[in-house]
Amino acid sequence: MRLKTNLIVGAIFLALLAFVYFHEIRGGERRRAEIERAKELLSFQDSEVRRVTLERADTVVVLQREGDEWRLLQPVEDVADQEAVQRLLRNLRETERERVVVDSAAAAADERAGARYGLDSPRLRVLVELASGPLDTVIFGGSSPAERYAYAQLRGANRQIFVVRLWRFDNLNKGAFDLRDRRVLPFDQEQVQAIRLDRPQETLALERVDASSWQITAPVRARADQAAVRSFLSRLANGKVKVFVAERATENQLGAYGLAPPSTLELTLLVGAERAEKRLRLGARTQGGGCYARDMSAPQVFEVDSLLVADVDKTVEQLRDKKLVRFDREGITRLELARPGQASVVAVRDTGDVWSVVSPRVLPAKAWKISGLLTDLENLEADGFVPAGERASRAPTVLTIALSGSAGSVAQVRFADAAGDTVYAFCTGESGIYRLSKSKYSAVDLRLEDLAEPEGGATSDSTGGSPPNENAADRL
């Protein structure tokens, strides 16, 4: 009897477990999913959508998928902003019916029901067409009294009137300008191989050396400021059209906009292994301080803002590397400072990383001073460059600094005294002449007594510590 009773109890327990699992757990999940589906405004997968029509009070916007790309068909034909279209579809898919205000039967029975909620003259109609056919058209009317919701209705069999979050409506109520590709010049900045800026007076050209460095090739051959070039390309890639001025400008209009040759500036990028051309032409200034512009692969004329113009209208001096020398300080084993009519000061570093002065006589080195000199030389930036016509080569040399490593010469800079507060710098391997102030130059204008311990005096740590007589409070 006891065994039979236990079996009966066990069977009842298993039946209860099965009921809880299938009805409460699995069934609860299904019911929740059904409730969520019932709240969905429209049910679709983004990949299924082939066409979207937004009918607003002032215009009709039509978007169509062509292959993997969305295009704008109305009110103008152009490439769509792919991310903006994806955001639109996501907002449409995620919009929920927050609350039903008039059920379907009441709405069908009362023809004036929609008018009370602004649905007789809707602010927006949305039609989504899938590969399998169109979905219900959604219309949006007025806002709720507290302006937290917008009234909406489907135009299919279910005519209930409901509300959606107002911010969802705002995210769907987009015009052609919002959904249009507004990039000033579409390109992948990592694929740019060359840059050319053509002005009536000169051409500035740069070539990519490798993944992280650029070289100026015209009007001079010089190192480019890598950070400045990256900023230039980033700003151009992210530049947006401020307003479209003309969809198809005539030759006379192009002249009025300053976009007929010769223009103020024509910027050309060579992109990818095939070096495909991407050209942007900048023309006359607008009344708002911006500039008329045109992507030369498209017919539209548009306006760009003054900040973008300033960011791309660069001179050779703005994109040129103003650092006099670039070197790996860990690889420097010999340092020479030479002055006209004086013996050179030479310091060397041995295999134990100990610096010593070997000329004009052998002395222990102030390693912290040599370290500071290398740092100052590494960080030394010019104020500008000497124009080609200026007779800088006649300025008297005051100091030459040469750096060497295990493989030989690394860098050499010759400083010459110019008039006033200016010092010229001539760097080996560079065709240009740098110009800097004497206050900047003074940081590297060191002599034997600066780099070497006095004969018979106390020595400092030749591997790079602080000077022995440094004030303890200063070190703190």
Which helices and strands occur, and which strands form pairs?
Blueprint: H1 2-39, E1 49-56, E2 60-66, E3 69-74, E4 78-79, H2 82-94, E5 99-102, H3 104-109, E6 124-130, E7 133-134, E8 138-143, E9 149-154, E10 161-165, H4 166-172, H5 176-179, E11 192-198, E12 203-210, E13 213-218, E14 222-223, H6 226-238, E15 243-246, H7 251-256, E16 265-271, E17 276-285, E18 291-295, E19 301-304, H8 306-312, H9 316-319, E20 334-338, E21 345-349, E22 355-359, E23 363-364, H10 367-379, E24 384-385, E25 397-405, E26 408-417, E27 422-427, E28 433-437, H11 438-441, H12 448-451, H13 472-475
Antiparallel strand pairs: 1-2, 1-6, 2-3, 3-4, 5-10, 6-7, 6-8, 8-9, 9-10, 11-12, 11-16, 12-13, 13-14, 15-19, 16-17, 17-18, 18-19, 20-21, 20-25, 21-22, 22-23, 24-28, 25-26, 26-27, 27-28
Written account of the structure:
It is a single chain. The radius of gyration is 37 Å and the shape is elongated. Strands 1, 2, 3, 4, 5, 6, 7, 8, 9 and 10 form a ten-stranded antiparallel beta sheet that branches. It has a nine-stranded antiparallel beta sheet with strand order 14-13-12-11-16-17-18-19-15. It is built from 13 helices and 28 strands. The chain folds into four domains: 39 residues; 134 residues, no CATH class; 131 residues, Immunoglobulin-like, CATH 2.60.40; 139 residues, Immunoglobulin-like, CATH 2.60.40. The protein is of the alpha+beta class. The protein starts with a helix and ends with a helix.
